[in-house]
Amino acid sequence: MRTNIVIDDKLMADALKLTGAKTKREAVELGLKALIRLNKQQAIKKFKGKLKWDGDLDSMRLNR
């Protein structure tokens, strides 16, 4: 999707520097992917303590 947006220059410069992105487009895409990943992680957290799991974690760790 093609769009034009106004982004704070310092914010973009920081994003490019910290991520190593070579282009503004790459920096924006990395930011969107991170935002999506964080929101998915938040959605998963609501299941904490509500799912039943049967297994032997110690045994699983030995088989690595």
TrEMBL record:
InterPro entries xref list: VapB_antitoxin
Tell me which domain of life the UniProt entry assigns to the organism this sequence originates from. Bacteria
**What is the native source organism of this protein?**
Thiogranum longum
Name recorded for this polypeptide = VapB protein of antitoxin of type II toxin-antitoxin system
